[in-house]
Inverse folding.
């Protein structure tokens, strides 16, 4: 019988080393899979994702509702309607021809740039949220004169099958002034 040297006795066999590596790989896979599952199903992470969706939809909707070019009126009014739902959407559709006449008559182009935004309220179960968005609005008149002002808007959003949409929109109150009751934007510069 062949005698094993002391070094050969201390060295694990190839099968034992492979088994140990496989066991370590399995343990690592279980640990990372469990960690991934916990993060993916963490209520706080889901709430944060929803909050980010609401903020993005709110900022884009408010920007859309404060941007209107007399030279591309149909597209701008379509964006208004795509950004809205509920009573606000109905009001926009009912007033579309009037808005178009006012903007065409004034010959204005209004553009809005979002400066900042925040979700002020979010009820995932009810599918309702509120945002405050700060904008820089530039109105270019028919004579090419421009006027820029900063504005704060309050928007209420409702979850729809197509995503979060504005259901109300109004100016944020300044000082002790109450918030406006209606939510329809009016064409700037008219």
């Amino acid at each position: 019988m062949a005698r094993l040297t002391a070094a050969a006795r201390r060295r694990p066999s190839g099968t034992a080393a492979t088994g140990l590596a496989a066991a370590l790989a399995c343990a690592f896979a279980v640990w990372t899979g469990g960690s991934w599952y916990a993060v993916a199903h963490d209520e706080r992470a889901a709430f944060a994702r929803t909050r980010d969706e609401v903020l993005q939809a709110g900022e884009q909707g408010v920007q859309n509702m404060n941007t209107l070019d007399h030279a591309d009126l149909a597209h701008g009014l379509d964006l208004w309607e795509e950004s809205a739902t509920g009573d606000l959407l109905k009001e926009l559709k009912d007033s579309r021809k009037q808005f178009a006449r006012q903007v065409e008559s004034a010959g204005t182009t209004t553009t809005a740039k979002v400066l900042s935004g925040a979700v002020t309220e979010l009820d995932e179960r009810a599918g309702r949220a509120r945002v405050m968005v700060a904008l820089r609005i530039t109105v270019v008149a028919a004579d090419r004169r421009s006027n820029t002002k900063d504005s704060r808007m309050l928007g209420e959003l409702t979850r729809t099958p197509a995503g979060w949409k504005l259901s109300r929109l109004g100016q944020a109150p300044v000082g002790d002034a109450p918030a406006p009751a209606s939510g329809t934007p009016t064409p700037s510069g008219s």
